[in-house]
Amino acid sequence: GVNARYCVIGNPVAHSKSPTIHAAFALQTGQGIVYERCLAPVDGFAAIVRQLVASGYSGANVTVPFKLEAAALATTLSERARAAGAVNTLSFTPSGIAGDNTDGAGLVGDILHNAGVAIAGRRVLLVGAGGAARGAILPLLQQGPRQLVIANRTAATAENLAASFNSHGVPVEACTFADLDGRFDIVVNATSASLAGDLPPLPPAVFGAGTLALDMMYAADPTPFMRFAAAHGASMRDGLGMLVEQAAEAFFVWRGVRPQTCALLAAMRPPA
Ligand code: NDP
């Protein structure tokens, strides 16, 4: 039969590692899929999705800057997509377009299974209050941390975000960078500061021996956040594991088969 077709829609999209990751998953699981890159004009997302549906594609991943538009376009949303307010995984079905968000599950999977760090009972600091931070909150809360603190440059955004997640049985608090108090077990940088080579102004005392400091951004070299965290005793981690795990979760959503990620993640890391 004809292979099921998928793609990643973004602008820009040339740098995306998703085609490589999904090709590896397809090979590993024996699932016959084709996965391509799809560059959409900034004002042409909906038209591209219509074309993909009409051409018989089975689904698509969605990246910058279309995740909010994808949520608006989907005819049904998973609970985690609704909580995130954003969609990174679309499934084209006979009954419509299903929207899901696997980014937060990817973050949690990377922390638990690749870093080997528990979230239950721990003190977690989420830095940033944009789309990536929002998508991480429900999956983090479902692991039962002792507390989740959200710190953001624009304090009001963190306050609004914290207030909208206060019904999950875990204390969720907003805090300014300056008022952050004590050490955290897990610190996640969900800001885009690293893209500009910037460091969010975190007090060094949030880090210590035993802290996992994870930057959602992936770059060949450690980001300023990762270097700052490591200088204050934390173990550091970039966003590559999260990227591979969110892809594995999307593959599972589409194909009902969960790929192994360990070997691929190791192969994608440049030798130290
Ligand atoms: P948004 O534009 O939605 O949010 C940006 C956030 O960063 C805001 O909280 C903003 O604060 C903060 N910020 C920006 N610049 C600075 C700075 N110089 N100092 C302090 N805070 C700053 O971006 P996204 O949430 O979509 O993406 C954030 C990051 O997450 C990106 O680097 C992206 O690559 C990464 N990501 C990684 C994924 C993975 O699989 N590894 C998946 C998804 C995202 P303010 O509100 O004050 O403007």
From TrEMBL:
Residues bound to NADP(+): E79, G128, A129, G130, G131, A132, M216, G239
Record domain Shikimate dehydrogenase substrate binding N-terminal: where: 8-90
Primary enzyme class: oxidoreductase
GO molecular function: NADP binding; shikimate 3-dehydrogenase (NADP+) activity
Domain Quinate/shikimate 5-dehydrogenase/glutamyl-tRNA reductase, residue spans: 119-194
Entry's EC annotation: 1.1.1.25
CDD domains noted in UniProt: NAD_bind_Shikimate_DH (cd01065)
Subunit annotation: Homodimer.
Protein name: Shikimate dehydrogenase (NADP(+))
Organism of provenance: Massilia psychrophila
